[in-house]
Amino acid sequence: MDEPAHADRRRRNRVIFAILAGLAYLTILRLGFGMTFFSDEWAFIQNRSLADPATWWGPHNEHWSTIPVLVYRAMVETVGIGSYVPYLALVALLHLAVATLVYALLERSSGPLLALSGSAIVLFFGSGLENVYWGFQIGFVGALAFGLGAIWLTELGPTQARALAAAMLLLASVATQGVGLFMCVAVGIEWLLDPRWRRYVIVLVIPAAAFLAWYVAIGRFGVATFRDPFSSDALLAISPSIMRGLSNAFGAIAGLPLFGFVVFAAFTTWGTRNLVRDDLHPRVIGLLAAIAVQYALIGAVRAQLFDGAIDYTRYTYVSGILALVAFGQLAGRLEIPPRGRARFFGMVLVGGWLAFALTVNVGLLALGREVFLAHADMTRALIAVALDPHPPAGAQLDRSLRLVPAATTVRRLIAAYGDPRTDTLVPWAVRPIPDDVMEEARRWLVEGAPNT
């Protein structure tokens, strides 16, 4: 294709992507109406404060979370907790930033066709629904966005300024959430394997040293060890966890979640052939290593906590998007032939993939909405019983209710920041709490929240 025609297609596809991005943003926001604060969010609402810098640095579930703590607390102090819409709007905006970076990377590696198709899947990525509907996940999504920004700077070519900027983005990533460590793995391996970037690897000491200093000074005191990561059980869990995670990642982007391992096997075969031919881009290796490290850590220290923890959508969001970028880098420039039978089969192949993947992911968004609305029902029920001036006999008002703080704390927070039992921006979207959920909430107030 000549350059003017290619430029026209690039401009057209960028316009289409912008339209899809706007549609995705409005869709996610609308589907999220009626949701409210859930579980970990209350830790930021209850225990962190803009007025107390000491609360900015402590870990949350082993993660360095300074940036999301500051952002979240700024929102709590300004818009309060009377509506969940601003928190959804923020995480959805970060999600759009991730999709935009994916588009930019795929356009450079594979051309406008794969860029538009792949980023469309990311925009409606129901396989990672926790990171789309849960405002607290600005940590996961923000850390991924910072890391993808570092990869984008790498794509532009090596200069000292870009190397320093990438290091600062990775520093922001690790100060946002543990995902930043995996992004450091991806970028570090790519730079080590790419002769053009190897001389700049030393600047990655910046995020590495900062994280190490935080961990030694502060982070290690809040790390919860759920089991010995060096036990035989933990070590035996690593390999199956990596395989399961890679299968989830490639199944999600292919629209074939039940056959993800087959997709990954095909990807590996293709990549091995390129490696033998000395034609495998270092980015592919770096991204696969990042996914492997992610699931190795989950398998070693977390997978035994909950059945199916490896399959949590918050993890698939990260691994699936990294797998998509790796696929684009492996595939190289993809263009559908301009005419003839080859064009027909090319259209069928790309269209079929896009249809399958979008159908699966949009379907998961719809199913996930019901899950999070059920979470909202329980949150509102627990708050309602906590605020009841006549609590049931035997109620223990100073005991945590797990999904929300203790009743006495709930009363204080609502007096300060607003009442999430309704939604001041979209009150019509809040559904009545089912009677059985209210009864369960009363039981929690008396007996305590279940452990699982």
Question: Would you kindly provide a brief summary of this structure?
Answer:
The chain has 452 residues and is mainly alpha-helical.
Description of the structure:
The protein has 452 residues and is mainly α. Helices cover 67% and strands 0% of the residues. The protein has 17 helices and no strands. Helix 8 packs antiparallel against helix 9. The longest helix has 48 residues. The chain is globular.
Number of helices in the DSSP assignment = 17
Q: List low-pLDDT spans.
A: none
Main sheet attributes: strand count, strand direction, barrel closure: none
Radius of gyration: 23 Å
Structural class: mainly alpha
Average of the residue pLDDT scores: 90
| Number of self-contained structural domains | 2
Give the percentage of residues in beta strands. under 5%
Counted beta strands:
0
Terminus-to-terminus distance:
58 Å
- Secondary-structure element pattern, one letter each: HHHHHHHHHHHHHHHHH
Residue share in helices? 55-70%
Shape verdict: globular
Record keyword descriptors for this entry.
452 residues, mainly alpha, 0% strand
Describe the SSE topology.
Blueprint: H1 3-32, H2 41-47, H3 66-79, H4 85-110, H5 112-123, H6 130-133, H7 138-155, H8 160-174, H9 179-193, H10 205-217, H11 232-254, H12 260-276, H13 282-301, H14 313-331, H15 340-387, H16 407-417, H17 435-447
Helix pairs in contact: 1-4, 1-5, 4-5, 4-7, 4-14, 5-15, 7-8, 7-9, 8-9, 8-10, 9-13, 11-12, 11-13, 11-14, 13-14, 15-16, 15-17
